[in-house]
Amino acid sequence: MAQNPLDQLIQRLSRLPGLGPRSARRTALYLLKNREQVMLPLANQLDHAARKVRTCLDCGNLDLSDLCTICQDSRRDSQRICVVEDVSDLWAIERAGIYSGLYHILGGTLSALEGRGPRELGIDRLVQRASHIAENQSDRQFETIEPLSIDRLSEQMSEIILATSATVDGQTTAHYIAERLEHLPVQVTRLAHGVPVGGELNYLDDGTLAQAMKARSRL
Amino acid sequence: MAQNPLDQLIQRLSRLPGLGPRSARRTALYLLKNREQVMLPLANQLDHAARKVRTCLDCGNLDLSDLCTICQDSRRDSQRICVVEDVSDLWAIERAGIYSGLYHILGGTLSALEGRGPRELGIDRLVQRASHIAENQSDRQFETIEPLSIDRLSEQMSEIILATSATVDGQTTAHYIAERLEHLPVQVTRLAHGVPVGGELNYLDDGTLAQAMKARSRL
B52, A5: Cβ pair inside 8 Å? Predict the structure, then answer.
């Protein structure tokens, strides 16, 4: 406790992800050289954000109110929920600008080892939201659309997109969620697997290549 | 100004050295997930260090008082000053534990482009300190030791070690300082150049290899 505040700062910085002791020292020096412009504002900002930023009660997104901007936005398609592992995945999808529905943030994957079960991932809440949008949909349009079909996506139907990572844990979690949603009249979909745009075939792993070949489409 | 504090935090973090936008986002998420244990303490620590840490008036080191621990330590050899570019260089030498003298921190190299002249590097102060230790030495021991010799280091004589980087800027700065100290009865030395310990010859640049060959010593 009688330790130098400089050493303490370096120690704290070195525990951040991606910063080792060496870059922590560099960062500490940089900060001390720019106290007024960088260091004190950063301290303020950290304190401010830690106190202000909240977790959306509906989807788990980080925002300033109990309901996040996305959940509050009436222009977004409330019949679609995209299930992602982490807030950073939501940010990535939002940056791509190709999705206008809502989200559900799991906060990780199912993991007995790390003590994350369905409760920790808020899967009950997701099922609840899914049954809610399924009800709304049946009120509105159930007579006008064709019966549930897995092969063909219906633009009119409610949809849960499972956008977990293409890792074993991510896919296990997705399968578990799909099972839990089985009884509901919603489409459950997953992201396509394939060659990344700009990716070279000879650097691609066999699994991806196999998936890309299987799911090939007509030009 | 009406920007989200989360975005502001990410922006601030991404300006730190070594953190791009992607790692800034990752860090922000990590911090927000560990508010009580990591984020608020870090904010506090930053604020605390920014207000407490000072620059030593004698050597330029960062510490808690106007005279740093090293300058205050009476067990250190006050007849030796090691000139380094930055506080991180001082830390590196202290970690190696092979030097017990004092320091002078330049805070960079001479650079007309970046507006760093002798004044910014505190070279007048260094010359003053050097002449001070030269005086003390002449009082104490000038009669007992042999005349100034460049080839042979005298353990009894005052010494200024120029430990600037082995870059063009670092060496230019070292030469400038050596000239400014010429008139004083102190030994001016520089670090040895050579093969780094653990370094492989075939990965070494020609300059280093040439220096190492020239300065070879008897086994």
Answer: yes
Per residue in A47-61, pLDDT (tens digit) is 999 999 999 999 999
Given an 8 Å threshold on Cβ–Cβ distance, is A40 in contact with B31? Answer: no
The neighbouring-strand residues paired with A83 are A104, A162
Q: pLDDT tens-digit profile of B14-30?
A: 999 888 888 999 999 99
- DSSP string for residues in chain B: --S-HHHHHHHHHHTSTT--HHHHHHHHHHHHHTIIIIIHHHHHHHHHHHHH-EE-TTT--EESSSS-HHHH-TTSEEEEEEEESSHHHHHHHHHHT---EEEEE-SS--BTTTTB-TTTTTHHHHHHHHHHHHHHHHHHHTTTSPPP-SSS--TTS-EEEE---SSHHHHHHHHHHHHHHTTSSSEEEEPPP-PPTT--GGGS-HHHHHHHHHT----
Model confidence at A139, pLDDT cuts 50, 70, 90, reads low
Q: Over 70: is that where the pLDDT of B143 sits?
A: no
Q: Is A135 left (phi over 0), alpha (psi -120 to 50) or beta?
A: alpha
Q: At B84, phi and psi to the nearest 5? A: -125, 160
**Is B4 in Cβ contact with A63 (below 8 Å)?**
yes
Which residue numbers of B have CB closer than 8 Å to A's CBs?
A: 4-6, 8-9, 12-13, 15-19, 23, 25-32, 35, 38-50, 52-53, 62-64, 86-88, 91
